[in-house]
């Protein structure tokens, strides 16, 4: 419940700022009307950017993969000796 | 394979950056440019700058609701 309250208060603050900007007319009025949509689009863009960058820098650890395969083979041998059915090879 | 992952990641970053720059240009810089400049030929009329994100958001929300409804119906059919 507390997280929802935090988000709601953040939304209220942002909308208060936006209405204040509208009234004060520091930026031209046509720009101020478009600001919320612009921020939503840029937020979506930022999320997509983070996903893309994370995908590009994802480490694959080839040595660990090899060690893991060796561990799996070792475990399968051990279990087969003990008589447990390890399934398809 | 990591090359396919890298390609997809690069595509995503490129798409997001291009969308961001195009939209920033459209909304913020273009109103300050004279209306008979050649650059206006490359951008759609300003009304679309609001229409397209709103339409995309509505489509996304409806797809989300359809998906949730689908999952709920499927789970209800299984228990009933």
TrEMBL record, chain A:
Q: Which keywords fit this entry according to its UniProt record?
A: Endoplasmic reticulum, Membrane, Signal, Transmembrane, Transmembrane helix
The record gives the membrane topology as: Multi-pass membrane protein
Q: Name one GO cellular component term.
A: dolichol-phosphate-mannose synthase complex
On whether Endoplasmic reticulum is a keyword of this UniProt record, the answer is yes
Single GO BP term: GPI anchor biosynthetic process
Q: Does the keyword Nucleotide-binding apply?
A: no
Sum up the protein's function in the record's words: Stabilizer subunit of the dolichol-phosphate mannose (DPM) synthase complex; tethers catalytic subunit to the ER.
What is the official name of this protein in its record?
Answer: Dolichol-phosphate mannosyltransferase subunit 3
- Record organism: Hibiscus trionum (Flower of an hour)
UniProtKB/TrEMBL annotation, chain B:
**Which pathway does it take part in?**
Protein modification; protein glycosylation
Instruction: Give Gene Ontology CC terms.
Output: dolichol-phosphate-mannose synthase complex; endoplasmic reticulum membrane
Q: Does the keyword Ubl conjugation apply?
A: no
Classify the protein's membrane topology as the record does.
Multi-pass membrane protein
Please list every transmembrane segment annotated in the UniProt record, as residue ranges.
Answer: 7-29, 49-73
UniProt KW Endoplasmic reticulum keyword: yes
Task: Spell out the Pfam families in the cross-references.
Answer: DPM2 (PF07297)
* GO molecular function annotations of the record: enzyme regulator activity
**GO biological processes:** dolichol phosphate mannose biosynthetic process; GPI anchor biosynthetic process
This protein's UniProt keywords? Endoplasmic reticulum, Membrane, Transmembrane, Transmembrane helix
Highest taxon above the source species: Eukaryota
Record localization: Endoplasmic reticulum membrane
Principal subcellular localization: endoplasmic reticulum
Family from the record: Belongs to the DPM2 family.
Sum up the protein's function in the record's words. Answer: Regulatory subunit of the dolichol-phosphate mannose (DPM) synthase complex; essential for the ER localization.
Q: How does it assemble?
A: Component of the dolichol-phosphate mannose (DPM) synthase complex.
Give the protein name, as stated in the record: Dolichol phosphate-mannose biosynthesis regulatory protein
